[in-house]
């Protein structure tokens, strides 16, 4: 018969990695906003917020009996990261730390808390953070909401008491330990022994009175009560808990660089969407970020070389392993090589194209000078003017030849300027966008499917195809992205400002349109996740792509 073991919950810590632009936001101010928002949500939790309905009563009671504080911890300052999807700038990467305790003054209720219950509230909080991050006033804040909130749960007592954590006892109680070591998991009776064996590997404690486990998305520390009271604040927080969100933040930064390189590579391979100078500048910036991360990692590796705390170095080695830091650094380095090879090819192609255009002008001069056209023309004029010899004829001849040469030079210069201008304008791409208002005054917006500005709202529109005029392109793009048929009412303006689109120098013409068919057929298509009618009062709360907020303001809709 399986022997029972119960860990008594003490408190927990949550971590969320984030980029922040400190010129726009103060980390501690944002942490206070997040803290107030979370407290407000938990105080007003409803049945609809709870996924596991069978846990509803327990979760509602936990939400009413939670103590929570949030602080911002900067880890890499002076870190000029630009989100390649949204083109938003940041200068610091770090993490928000939540200190959490349920039933602080009610030990009897703490005994009822299980990993299944503990994992539920962070799921709810993650959805709150996703909405918070999307607010327009929070541009300049990028939370890692793709990952679960990291939970570090702690315990300071067990039932039965005073267990010595020999390997034999760890094996004996492995099912219960396994539930606490991987908080984000079910507790199914038919899990295999192999899974439990995996979850109890790598106990990082070197004491028989403690258990220390760190996983990718959660951690668990048990310390006998006397040890907990004496050493948790002075040692455990600094040498076991704190390194975990720091390494997770390094992972978040590396992952972001990796994604940016992927997007830059796709841009470099997109015909007609290549601004090589801009891409090269962004790659240089990513190299700087890689260097800053590697400098921070060097400090960690030095700790491994020189720090004599065996337990602490075991934690660092374990974190490097579970987050696969060396592997990700290697992948990032390989991508830099690939994208540089690609850039060299693109520069070679662009140089060849520019040379061909320049050669046309040179060929014109060769035709006129090298082929002797001017000389032949001069000879003909000389024969004609020699009919009457004299100084006057010579002067006339010189004047005519000079005018011809000047004329040809002017033509050549004009042609050269034209070639240069055409080179420049060949890098400009043209798009169209539509402002569509229904009979109730709602505006049609799409949610973008692809970078840049993936998951941001935008006006429907797109690129003008070859041999297509702007109005034809607009009607086609609106149909493809929303399913709506429209007619164009009038042109509202052109937007050509540098930097308005992270893909390059893109000029957009905006038209006001009216729906001609059934508006209920609206749906997302091609590059749109969805297409929606948005009330004007809601527009200011939406995160809009590119300069579409400015366009709506210019149209007096915002």
Keywords:
558 residues; alpha+beta; seven-stranded mixed β-sheet; four-stranded mixed β-sheet; 18 helices; 50% helix; elongated
Question: How would you sum up this structure in a few lines?
Answer:
The protein has 558 residues and is α+β, with helices and mostly antiparallel strands.
Number of domains: 4
Radius of gyration: 33 Å
Strand element count: 14
Straight-line distance between termini: 69 Å
Q: Assign an overall shape.
A: elongated
Helix and strand composition category: alpha+beta
The amount of helix comes to: 40-55%
Q: Output the number of helix runs.
A: 18
Low-confidence stretches: none
Could you tell me the strand content as a percent range?
A: 15-25%
Mean pLDDT: 87
Largest sheet: 7 strands, mixed
Question: What can you tell me about this protein's structure?
Answer:
By secondary structure, this protein is α+β, with helices and mostly antiparallel strands. The chain has four domains: 6-241, no CATH class; 243-346; 372-426, no CATH class; 429-554, Nucleoside Triphosphate Pyrophosphohydrolase (Alpha-Beta Complex). Helix content is 50%, strand content 19%. It contains 18 helices and 14 strands. The chain has helices at 27-43, 56-64, 107-110, 115-118, 120-134, 167-172, 174-181, 193-199, 225-241, 243-269, 276-306, 310-322, 325-370, 373-385, 391-426, 470-482, 536-539, 548-554; strands at 6-20, 66-77, 92-102, 141-143, 150-159, 210-214, 218-223, 429-436, 443-448, 457-458, 461-463, 486-495, 506-515, 528-534. Strands 1, 2, 3, 4, 5, 6 and 7 form a seven-stranded mixed beta sheet that branches. Strands 11-8-13-12 form a four-stranded mixed beta sheet, with helices on one face. A hairpin with an 8-residue loop joins β9 and β10 (457-458). α10 packs parallel to α12, α11 packs antiparallel against α13 and α14 runs antiparallel to α15. The radius of gyration is 33 Å and the shape is elongated.
